[in-house]
Amino acid sequence: MARQGKGRAPGLALWLALAALVVLADQLIKTLVVGAFQLGSVHPLTNWFALVRAHNAGAAFSFLAGASGWQRWFFTGLGVLASGFIVWLMRSHPTQKLFCFAVSMIMGGALGNVIDRLLHGHVIDYLQFRFAFLEPLFAGGYFPAFNLADSAITLGAACLILDELLRVRRTP
Length: 172
Prior knowledge:
By secondary structure, the protein is mostly helical. It has one domain (13-32, 40-170). The chain has helices at residues 12-36, 70-92, 97-120, 148-170; strands spanning 42-44, 49-56, 123-129. Helix 1 (12-36) packs parallel to helix 3 and helix 3 runs antiparallel to helix 4 (148-170).
């Protein structure tokens, strides 16, 4: 493993530590939410933001939440396989800092939700936003509840898009 020095890429250990930090923070917050809130609790903090406790047996936007239970193992396996692939990607592209940051965020978020699926059989969500402009898409304008792991995955995906746009821009 290359040592980090002037002009050198951060090592794999840094990216794995970043992913682990996301997992740790995500699981800590979920533990606090489970301890403090009953399922279905809503604690408004503003007229557009609330802390909630929701369980999602599916994927994003509760995709496949109503399936018979196989989705728990499917999404768990998918998260584990994706994490292995991400480690390979980080090892293959060690000099691409934005790319490695992006996939670290995705891996941390995926593993945070994998832990939920293994421990609880569902993912614990706790952040809920409401905006009037969302009413045509979501009942009452409430965006589906999500968590820190989901936020990390979204940040990672946005950074992947930015990384690709910057790469294409640099290509003659």
